[in-house]
Amino acid sequence: MIGLVARGFVVDGSFTLDGIRAVLAAPRTWRIVGQTLAQAVAGTLVAVLLGVPGAYLLYRCRFPGRGLLRAVVSVPFVLPTVVVGVAFTSLFAARGPLGWLGLDESFAAIVIALVFFNYTVIVRTVGALWARLDPRSAEAARVLGASPARVFLTVTLPAIAPAVLSGASLVFLFCATAFGIVMVMGGIRFSTIETEIWYQTTQLLDLPAAAALSIIQLVVVVLALLVAGRARTRTEHALRLRGDDTAERPWRSRPDLLPSVITGVVVFMLLVVPMVHLVVRSFVTADGWGWRNYQLLATTGAGSLTVPVWTAVTNSLVIATQACLLAVILGVMVSLVASRRPRQPVLAGGVRVLDAVFMLPLGVSAVTVGFGFLITLNRPPLDLRSSPILIPIAQAIVALPLVVRTLLPVLRAIDPRQREAAAILGAGPGRALATIDGTLALRGLGLAIGFAFAISLGEFGATSFLSRPDHPTLPVVIFRLIGRPGADNFGMAMAASVILAVLTAAVMAAAEFVRPREAEL
Amino acid sequence: MSGLTVTDAVVRYGDVVAVDAVDLAVEPGEIVALLGASGSGKSSLLRGIAGLEPLAGGRVCWDDEDVSVVPVHKRGFGMMFQDGQLFHHLTVEGNLGYGLYREPRDRRRGRVIELLDVVGLAGYGKRRVSELSGGQAQRVALARSLAPRPRLLLLDEPLSALDRSLRERLVGVLSDALRTTGTTAIYVTHDQDEAFALADRVGVMADGRMLQTDPPDVLWRHPASRDVATFLGYQPFIAGDESGRLGGPNCAADEVVGIGPAGLLPAPDGLAVPIVEQSYQRGEVLIDVRIPDGQIATVRVAEKLAGDELVVSLDPAGCVVVPV
After folding, report:
1. pTM of the entire structure?
2. A45 touches chain B (CB under 8 A)
3. Is ipTM beyond 0.95?
4. Nearest Cβ partner for B85 among A421, A427, A439
5. How far apart are CA B250 and CA A314, in angstroms?
């Protein structure tokens, strides 16, 4: 990261601000920044407006089929961005099933795809809090004569506001740094900072400009996080929470109808239709229905690719395994340290800084990580650029924040007095760590491994910088296929997307199965 | 000197002084109760002795050896936490055996069975901790803390999370377990019935200071100050001449007389005072009366009374004289 910032200022061995100044002076830059912000704000607003009713229905009401619905809602988040992009492109294409909407390659289409991707984030973060909100505050307000609407506005909304804000800031980050979706759906017309960095680096080879853009993005992200953090502390107050899920109650037709209709439409139109469409479209060939697209995966697509798609699948699996191993080992160590509550203020501050540093990749975006690797690890003593280990390392860095976010709540939920009890029974620091933290962290490990593996499988941003032509991963291959003309190439992209989606979903389904109660998101 | 010696101990949380220069000695085999309201510093003192909080001043010694800098797990002190802090990922047996991991397997198993017997839970070894009731969980916690034969056992309000009847039963279990195992113990509580039932000596703490440490009967008969007497339940405090008028003990001008729960009795040759209120408490009737100096005092009788006056006098055996 430091190498990246330095590269923005240093040209030909001397310190200069020219690179930055040139980028800042270009009207194109400001158009791109504006585009990025507009896209992120629109995506966040829509996701929040649709997600809050969804959180209510899925976490506050009890009805048959809720488990299935929750599972359906959580699928998009783990789908690779390239797959999402391909699904929506094909859906909105001029001759696609929703072509009549005229949304092909439009701003609205990108926002819809972003909402598809981030709806889960809002539902989960808000729902997790809402499910444990003590209903008696709302009941007290009702008894005092407030209408249901007034109760929602004056009691419930202030209570869930911190969760809404933290979910929204996360979604804003994801939207502002979305790469795969914009690359696949918008092309150059809707470039954001993220795609522009890629364009400047790989197409124009203008590294200082790319570095300058990375810095602008860093500033935007940090500003957004600061604003969100301040808003959150202002709205945060002691909440009356219940430890169990007893705050939920059976579905009732009158108060729950509106959220049910909204959620039903969203889940069907926004989530189910694109996913089903992707699968259906993968079976459409020039001469009717068939497996032809899947059979073509064994070929290089008449020269469009350097290797058959199945080879890319193998590449992806191998790289994902390596990345997953790295991310989980690192993640466990970081979580163990970050879960400590040292007594000395200096150490406590150190832990907070560590926590923030390892969350940075979450906000900095995969493209910046890939770009940073490209320009810092390319000379002795650490010349890894041509080494095949570079991609797993970069993917591990991208996956690390989510691994930490999965393990940390589990470790933080451990009552510190459990460690004290172990110590007082004669357990030294090592034994206490193994028997208390270790045993409980194991429960979160399955989910962490699943996340790391799924993210590495679908990782496109960083990989697109580092992948070598003769050794591509599945998302890279899909992106290359969709950029080529010809029905066969498009069909192969569809089939490959389905394969990638199925692989990711299978990994996540297995991980969900062992999810501990404490882990959210 | 053998046993525990705490000298000038200070525990600080930031700027707040929780324990302020406290001295305490516990001899081997002795049980000392620490009594005090919440926030009086008694739990902080306990954590300081255990090594869970660093001492900002003073020393903790065992058999004249300074253990202030010895890490928690090497002090050889045991602790029973207020909410048990059982390890939920282990069985009852696993919890009991946790502190015995250095011992061979069969010795460990024997000790676990022996201790389950001591706390009256024989045969519970294979149970999951989450299947236990509150009282059972605390008994397992007690057995777990006794298992490694700690040279000193620290009990931090171990019964305060339980309801009254369970508490009264478990005080007996605790007392028997500590006596039969000959354990040296410090027992922190805010309930003086518990403290008096268990302890050889009782220390009363307030605002981080140790006000008095004495055997229960001495403490009860001779509270060192008005604060201690108040905490023990002496109420109200009256001047010497007022006490004399009611048939109670006389005292100097810089002293007051505290009326204990059985200090004011109905007596035919006493003084008639107005009844303010009558209420039931555990089978007795508490009658609040207004004594001549205007304060309210309580008389305990068997039945509710008709009329609005009661003739009472002070029993010197139920009253104490303390400095103002």
Report:
1. 0.70
2. no
3. no
4. A421
5. 98
